[in-house]
Q: What sequence folds into this?
């Protein structure tokens, strides 16, 4: 499978199910790549998979694609590969790959099940931009017959918040779109803040759409709980200490990275929120405090 | 009379786009005073108050309302014990001219006080389009200081881009950032300077939406948060939170007249409490937020 086929398969997966996380689509693509690979050695296979992950990061530069790919590779290799026959080894790896995919397809549901109990009846929730995990959580809470209303930020430059508002209106949830600049204004009215994450870093902090950091700072100032919902394949081996430390390859869209020379003129599309501002993280591994994240992260990557 | 008033006000704004809307309003009130054919001083005062209300119906910013009230108080703050009404009017007109002259100089005074706080090599963050901040930065640039500016785009009217254009004309390196990127960019800047649409009794300010969260983030990053405002923007309000600011200031005048359900509208201003402000630069001097109420009382006595 060469680069073009790889990218085409990935794009087809994304088109087929727009509700799927881009990392899940990437992992499906890697599994397909594994099946079609004609390598002769296990080392060669691993190198090819790493190369394939890099290709996919070139298409979709979100943190989750990169972390998801790495976790996939580790998971399938985390088994006895002491067979004489390469095809037997490959078969074992494929089976583990399918298992991994199955586990992560269930992760959003697990997160929603954990999180919806924190939404009390009559709550006013603030969220940022468009997040499918947050949407799933709110769907579950609405299904449990809770009454709540949502404020969602418009989230420039792509106005993704409007998409979120549309989806929430379909669930008959009262929703108000607010300007990114109005977060401080609206925070005195809300009870809690729930955001998704594009990546969860080793310190327990998160990388998410630009605007999340100032929402977290203002929530802390107003003493409102700041909850993060993320699947475990988003855990990534990074330890940024401030905004500058986040690698450029995640800060800008993949197209921008390829075409633009002077990145300082571009608007970054993500920012880093330190763990001190986060109350709790809801993941499919359980409800974690930011400090528990590094333990879980190490277990995943061992 | 209503239409003439509004027309004169609009003409003043068009003639000099660089003039604060409150100054245009005060010119209009002065003209109104000159043309007024009332018979009593009380009637005159009532007419002026009515005229101020008309103008707030055109431009709902806080400064127009406070500027009008301060104008009325200033011109009445004199002995009006003359027998002839026309003599009283003449005295009031003279005081009106004096007031207008004083406030036309206020931006220059503010710029003179503030530019020394901008050190060479400073990175400044500002919000939306403010003519006072622009004047301050012009003065600093004229003093041959090198600095660069980050300005927020400031939705929904993208006024920040206008600010960026004006700064580029001064050859100041400027970067437009998203409203959502304020927290991201704050670790890079040295200080934050914003204008104000109104300064309230507590020493807090009312300004374009987004100022409050910029102030909270500045506090979190320990960066100084400076406000530049002329003294006619001091207003007799004491909001305790965002809700307390009267609706008539929160939305544009057109929106207030046409829309029924205001909760669907985006408010265009927010309130920044005094605890987040480092210093206020006004034509009355450099004030801490707690000193503002003293100065405010002196103005309105």
A:
């Amino acid at each position: 499978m060469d680069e073009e086929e790889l990218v085409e398969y990935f794009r087809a997966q994304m088109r087929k199910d727009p509700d799927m996380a881009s990392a899940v689509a990437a992992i499906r693509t890697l599994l397909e790549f594994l099946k079609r690979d004609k390598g002769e050695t296990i080392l060669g296979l691993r190198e090819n998979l790493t190369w394939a992950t890099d290709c996919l990061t070139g298409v979709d530069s979100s943190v989750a694609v990169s972390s998801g790919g790495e976790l996939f590779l580790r998971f399938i290799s985390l088994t006895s590969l002491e067979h004489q026959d390469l095809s037997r080894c490959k078969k074992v790896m494929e089976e583990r790959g399918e298992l991994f995919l199955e586990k992560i397809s269930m992760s959003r549901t697990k997160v929603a099940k954990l999180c919806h109990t924190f939404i009390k009846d009559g709550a006013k929730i603030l969220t940022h931009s468009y997040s499918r995990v947050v949407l799933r959580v709110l769907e579950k809470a609405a299904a449990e017959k809770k009454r709540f209303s949502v404020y969602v930020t418009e989230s420039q430059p792509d106005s993704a918040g409007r998409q979120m508002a549309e989806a929430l209106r379909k669930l008959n949830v009262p929703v108000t779109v607010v300007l990114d600049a109005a977060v401080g204004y609206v925070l005195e009215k809300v009870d809690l803040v729930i955001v998704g994450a594009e990546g969860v870093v080793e310190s327990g902090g998160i990388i998410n759409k630009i605007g999340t950091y100032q929402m977290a700072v203002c929530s802390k100032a107003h003493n409102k709980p700041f909850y993060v919902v993320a699947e475990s394949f988003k855990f990534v081996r990074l330890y940024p200490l401030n905004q500058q430390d986040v690698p450029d390859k995640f800060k800008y869209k993949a197209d921008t990275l390829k075409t633009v020379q002077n990145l300082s003129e571009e608007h970054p599309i993500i920012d880093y929120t330190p763990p001190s501002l986060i109350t709790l993280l809801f993941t499919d591994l359980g409800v974690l405090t930011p400090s528990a994240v590094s333990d879980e992260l190490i277990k995943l990557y061992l």
